[in-house]
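Changelog-adjacent note: as of this version, every example in the card shows the full chain rather than a window. The one below runs 454 residues end to end.
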Amino acid sequence: MNASTRTGVRYTLLMLFLINFLNFFDRTIPAVVLEPLRLEFGLTDTMLGLLGTAFTLVYALAGLPLGRLSDRFKRTRILGAGVFVWSVFTAASGMAWNFVSFFLIRLGVGIGEASCAPAANSMIGDMYPSKQRARALGLFMLGLPLGSLACFALVGWLAQNHGWRVPFIVAAVPGLIIAVLALTLREPVRGSQESYAIDTQTPIDRPYRRVMAIPTLWWIILSGAAVNFAAYAMGNFLPALMIRYHHVNVAQAGLVAAVVLGVTGLLGLTVGGWLADKIHALFPRGRLMMGAVCLLLAAPLLFMGLTRPAGDVLNTTVLLSAGWLLYFMYFVTVYASVQDVVEPRLRATAMAVYFFFQYVLGAGFGTVVTGALSDFYGKQAMNAAGATQMSDAFRAIGLQSSMSVVVPIAIAITGIALWFAARSFVRDAARAGGNAAPLAAPAVPSVSLAAAKA
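Full-length structure tokens:
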């Protein structure tokens, strides 16, 4: 690999990271301004949960056709168009005049953001060989914690000083710039990093059926639904929990969320990606086994953090941070494993299918179930106190009770699913390339970014 090729690969990975950074920054803004939004529009927690549910359902549905397009056409163009669309709708979110208008505008954001994951993951699979993918995907996925960290830290301050509408408009500006830059990226050659020949001429029939016939992917889909159930409950309601239950202000709640949901990812994704590749080199199913162990350890830590007494901000932050650091190991173990069990021409489709179930079954229900349980437990607390009117104190108890049930259980299910995925991984990875002719070692470029035909 020459210096020019290395530079091109690194630039492309940097741009994909920035796109992912904006993806998570823009989708996280509503979580930071949840309380001001609730007060202005007079919303219940169930209605707030429905906002997240509608967004994720549209995101999941739009991802299926966008995934197929990413397997057939230039992924750089799909990414550029997607970033442009979600940036325009992000700006429009700050101009909403009631709950219905905000609800509909966020659906537009979801459609645009659905372009990111299938296209970007497919491109990284064609830029790096299997033994380096966890590290590359870990760097790409740094967009999640860094985007969340920046959002919770910056948006909390902006909302505190300028109102909840301003952050949406500010966030749209870099998105429009990145949308243009995405069109300048070179398209990686599909399958260029595999040790077997890729048939680029024969059309692929029944792509969704082929993808869904992979047993490992079924377990990974279950893990994705469970992990997103927990992730969206935490991402949407952690700031509100800190405000209601632990009595901090919006800016302080944003800072706690930035540490728990953002800073932990810096270590989890960078060190985790390196460790996952090392384990994979020694033990083929080691990536998934590592993920299973990390998630099973995370569940009790998160339970302890969510059940700390009111006002114990420090211990809550420490325990939740420890658990969420282990949660981030999920991405470097699972995303690389999907690439290994699916042939290159179906990777964007496979990621779209995975994200469809992950968001429909996980994120789509995670927020609304957490919100509904919060309302339920809040009413229970009100009735137990003999009160006749709902107060902020009862809402605080309801939300704390709901999150302490939803998050640890979903994370534990994730770990169990990864354990079963590891059992079938070796067989399915062999099948992915087993029907293709091996290539001689010199014929495999370490990295190729030659433009692919649309």
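Structural remarks: The two ends are 25 Å apart (CA to CA).
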